[in-house]
């Protein structure tokens, strides 16, 4: 079962796109930034190639709300690096290629081995402020609801 609003978000320690730097821990943002976790099935897929570049194009809105954006999928750090470059994605893409603990702890594991599409907004204290899981594929999260939740944190 996916997390609910006010639940504490499970911590994770995941590698990012090859060459982008060290692993990222959710706990590294606690007390510092709000965090939007964008769980998605696969790099280079049609719906993901619409959603994540759109969030990258809205960097100013996220920065204004003191919100870091992290993409999370099963793809390898090598695939993430290639996709980020080709799609113009500027925020970190994290991989759970080496273990499904993270996607399972968020209740988002799909029976076919990838993550269900979800946006999970976490406040600076580490609590879920907004969560939306959409049908994989083809539905996208409701950006109006997401940005309303982000604005409420500001």
Overview of this protein structure:
The protein has 154 residues and is of the alpha/beta class. The chain has a single domain, classed as Glutaredoxin. The chain is 28% helix and 21% strand. It contains five helices and seven strands, in the order E-E-E-H-H-E-H-E-H-E-E-H.
Which labels suit this protein?
single chain, 154 residues, Glutaredoxin, 7 strands
Fold blueprint:
Layout: E1 13-14, E2 24-25, E3 34-39, H1 48-57, H2 59-64, E4 67-73, H3 77-87, E5 93-95, H4 101-105, E6 117-122, E7 128-134, H5 143-153
Parallel strand pairs: 3-4, 4-5
Antiparallel strand pairs: 1-2, 3-6, 6-7
Largest sheet: 5 strands, mixed
In which range does the helix fraction lie?
Answer: 25-40%
Strand order of the largest sheet: 5-4-3-6-7
What order do the SSEs take from the amino end to the carboxyl end, as H and E? EEEHHEHEHEEH
Query: How many separate domains?
Result: 1
Tell me the number of strands.
Answer: 7
Please state the second-level CATH architecture. Answer: 3-Layer(aba) Sandwich
Give the percentage of residues in beta strands.
Answer: 15-25%
> C-alpha Rg, in Å?
14 Å
CATH level 4 superfamily: Glutaredoxin
Low-confidence stretches: none
Number of helices: 5
**Any idea of the CATH topology?**
Glutaredoxin
From the N-terminal CA to the C-terminal CA, the straight-line distance is 28 Å
- Report mean pLDDT, rounded to a whole number: 93
- Structural class assignment: alpha/beta
Shape: globular
CATH class reads Alpha Beta
Oligomer: single chain
């Amino acid at each position: 079962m996916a997390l609910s609003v006010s639940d504490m978000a499970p911590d994770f320690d995941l590698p990012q796109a090859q060459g982008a730097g060290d692993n990222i821990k959710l706990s590294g943002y606690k007390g510092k930034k709000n965090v939007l976790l964008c769980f998605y099935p696969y790099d280079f897929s049609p719906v993901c190639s619409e959603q994540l570049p759109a969030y990258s194009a809205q960097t100013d809105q996220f920065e204004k709300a003191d919100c870091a954006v992290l993409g999370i999928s099963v793809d390898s750090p090598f695939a993430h690096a290639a996709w980020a470059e080709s799609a113009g994605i500027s925020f970190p893409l994290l991989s759970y290629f080496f273990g499904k603990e993270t996607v399972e702890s968020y209740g988002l594991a799909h029976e076919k081995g990838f993550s269900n599409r979800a946006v999970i907004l976490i406040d600076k204290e580490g609590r879920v402020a907004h969560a939306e899981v959409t049908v994989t594929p083809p539905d996208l999260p409701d950006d109006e609801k997401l940005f309303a939740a982000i604005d409420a944190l500001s």
